[in-house]
């Protein structure tokens, strides 16, 4: 929690004044038993004076009203500081997560990140509010009640110390056992988040494979696991109340018993007993508050640790240079120099010994079996990952020397999975260039062969896109994603298996339109289809993370066995030669 205190910087006033208001309320509360004792001893027993009793009653009402006003102020400051800090933590987390590279996002995991932004931040936020309201008040009430009890009768106050010690011991034993379980509960919540996410997003696949029962069993197992741990924690916490009440009740009996003996002996007044019982009750309530506060702080501590884990995760792909650099003349558009890459340093290389150059405006086809490293290779060009060895150059400069914005602006990327965002088609088309005109958008839609179905929609560019684009077919989504990438006329267009959901005629029409309309653009097409890249200026053939061959179709068909096998598995000899 301490590490997150920076988010309270803007709320110093609230953090100081809030607890002070609560302290003021606590001081007033400590006077209540004294006034009550006075009513009994002076107003009733000594003076038999109704007016005195009413006056003192008025003092009680005044104390209560002032205390309530003070508590309301504290509540206001606590809410302001906690909501404000929570909002800033969420914003900072979101900013930081966006600065992380794909490697860190992969290892932290989306469901866990969502739980950290939502549930964990809420926990911390709630803890801030409760600490402002109760962290100073509860100990103050406990210590204040003990002092007040001592001031009434020093010997009787020993009962208070004994009871307070016993309750503190109970708290310690219960907490030391339940605290580790809270961290486990958070982890199990993460797991449920992961399963729920998979189930909701993969809902259609689950139904198609009739896997509802298996998935239900998986959800049941995860929720039962969470329930078991939560019940264990609750059982431990539930012990707190009966034990503390038992100790307090015993202490109250002792106070009444010894108090009565003292009153009979003339050493104490009846009102003192009432005041002592009242202080004992205040101690009990404050102890229960401390117990709840410790539970809350434990949970918040576990949540804060998970939030800090995200903040402490440094992006492995960091921006080294923030100044724009200019393109070097007479250099290839893209160059790979003996590139080696692996996702984790202790695993096998996903790519090794990759060297090739691509000239400006060329169309490059990247082909190979599944898992051969095609997507990995292209993800190194916009620097989604850094190479483990060797260098990737764009316009003659190492990609690591570019500011992120300058580098990424060069690209139009169509990822393997077509991702659209909720909004209108126009909103989605303006992702890279918010100033894109309708004319530019329509041109991109035409090249991507998407204009035919967009024009038929009643609202055209203003048609709604549901979350993930699920109101469009797979092929339509792909074409919209391609259009989005070409609206801003990027220098380099990367199409990662982006024609997979298109029929052969649309695939061919799209490539023809691209060749005619995007002449200066360097196009990289990752595909499994030989026909898609047959006419490319350069074809890279990948096999097990290595370059099995590079060149044009005819020469590769002659020389490269892997390429020939791929082509012949898809096309006849005549089609290959066409
Ligand atoms: N984020 C990741 N973390 C760890 N390993 C990964 C990751 N992405 C891919 N890999 C591994 O890297 C290898 C190459 O994967 P890649 O996605 O580049 O292949 P591909 O040729 O594009 O396959 P496909 O044609 O099936 O999309 C595979 O063995 C895969 O398991």
UniProtKB/TrEMBL annotation:
It is a multi-pass membrane protein. Pfam families: ABC_membrane, ABC_tran. One of its GO terms (molecular function) is ATP binding. The keyword Electron transport does not apply. One of its GO terms (cellular component) is plasma membrane. The keyword Cell membrane applies. The chain crosses the membrane at residues 20-40, 52-74, 134-152, 158-175, 238-261, 273-296. Residues 334-569 form the ABC transporter domain. Keywords: ATP-binding, Cell membrane, Membrane, Nucleotide-binding, Transmembrane, Transmembrane helix, Transport. It is found in: Cell membrane. InterPro entries: AAA+_ATPase (IPR003593), ABC1_TM_dom (IPR011527), ABC1_TM_sf (IPR036640), ABC_transporter-like_ATP-bd (IPR003439), ABC_transporter-like_CS (IPR017871), P-loop_NTPase (IPR027417), Type_1_exporter (IPR039421). PROSITE patterns: ABC_TM1F, ABC_TRANSPORTER_1, ABC_TRANSPORTER_2. Residues 16-299 form the ABC transmembrane type-1 domain. This is ABC transporter ATP-binding protein. It comes from Ruminococcus difficilis.
């Amino acid at each position: 929690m301490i590490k997150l205190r920076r988010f309270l910087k803007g709320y110093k006033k609230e953090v100081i004044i809030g607890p002070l208001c609560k302290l003021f309320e606590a001081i007033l509360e400590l006077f209540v038993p004294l006034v009550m004792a006075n009513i009994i001893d002076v107003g009733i027993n000594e003076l038999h004076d109704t007016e005195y009793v009413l006056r003192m009653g008025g003092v009680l009402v005044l104390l209560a009203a002032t205390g309530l006003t003070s508590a309301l102020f504290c509540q206001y400051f606590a809410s302001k500081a906690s909501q404000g800090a929570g909002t800033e933590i969420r914003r900072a987390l979101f900013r930081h997560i966006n600065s992380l590279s794909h490697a860190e996002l992969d290892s932290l995991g989306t469901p866990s990140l969502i739980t950290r932004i939502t549930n964990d931040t809420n926990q911390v936020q709630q803890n801030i509010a409760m600490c402002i309201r109760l962290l100073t008040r509860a100990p103050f009430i406990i210590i204040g009640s003990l002092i007040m009890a001592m001031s009434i009768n020093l010997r009787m106050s020993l009962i208070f110390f004994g009871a307070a010690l016993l309750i503190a011991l109970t708290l310690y034993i219960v907490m030391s056992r339940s605290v580790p379980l809270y961290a486990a509960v958070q982890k199990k919540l993460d797991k449920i988040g992961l399963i729920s996410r998979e189930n909701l997003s993969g809902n259609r696949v689950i139904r198609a494979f009739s896997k509802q029962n298996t998935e239900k069993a998986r959800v049941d197992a995860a929720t039962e696991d969470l329930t078991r741990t939560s019940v264990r924690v609750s059982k431990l916490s539930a012990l707190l109340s009966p034990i503390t009440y038992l100790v307090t009740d015993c202490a109250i009996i002792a106070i009444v018993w010894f108090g009565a003996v003292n009153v009979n002996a003339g050493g104490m007044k009846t009102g003192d007993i009432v005041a002592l019982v009242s202080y004992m009750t205040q101690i009990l309530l404050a102890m229960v508050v401390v117990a709840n506060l410790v539970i809350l702080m434990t949970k918040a501590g576990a949540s804060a640790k998970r939030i800090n884990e995200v903040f402490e995760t440094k992006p492995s792909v960091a921006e080294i240079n923030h100044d724009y650099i200019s393109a070097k003349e007479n250099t290839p558009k893209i160059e790979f120099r003996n590139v080696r890459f692996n996702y984790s340093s202790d695993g096998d290389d996903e790519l090794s010994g990759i060297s090739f150059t691509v000239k400006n405006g060329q169309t490059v086809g990247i082909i190979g079996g599944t898992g051969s490293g095609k997507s990995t290779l292209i993800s190194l060009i916009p620097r989604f990952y850094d190479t483990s060895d060797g260098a990737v150059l764009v316009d003659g400069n190492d990609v690591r020397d570019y500011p992120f914005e300058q580098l990424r602006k060069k690209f139009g990327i169509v990822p393997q999975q077509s991702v659209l965002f909720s909004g209108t088609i126009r909103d989605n088309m303006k992702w890279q260039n918010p100033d894109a005109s309708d004319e530019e958008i329509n041109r991109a839609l035409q090249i991507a062969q998407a204009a035919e179905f967009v024009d038929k929609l009643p609202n055209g560019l203003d048609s709604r896109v549901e979350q993930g684009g699920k109101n469009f077919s797979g092929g339509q989504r792909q074409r919209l994603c391609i259009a989005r990438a070409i609206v801003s006329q990027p220098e380099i267009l990367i199409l990662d298996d982006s024609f997979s959901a298109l029929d052969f005629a649309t695939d061919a029409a799209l490539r023809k339109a691209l060749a005619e309309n995007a002449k200066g653009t360097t196009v990289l097409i990752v595909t499994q289809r030989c026909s898609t890249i047959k006419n490319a200026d350069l074809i890279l053939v990948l096999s097990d993370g290595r370059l099995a061959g590079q060149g044009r179709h005819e020469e590769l068909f002659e020389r490269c066995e892997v390429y020939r096998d791929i082509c012949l598995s898809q096309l006849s000899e005549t089609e290959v030669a066409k």
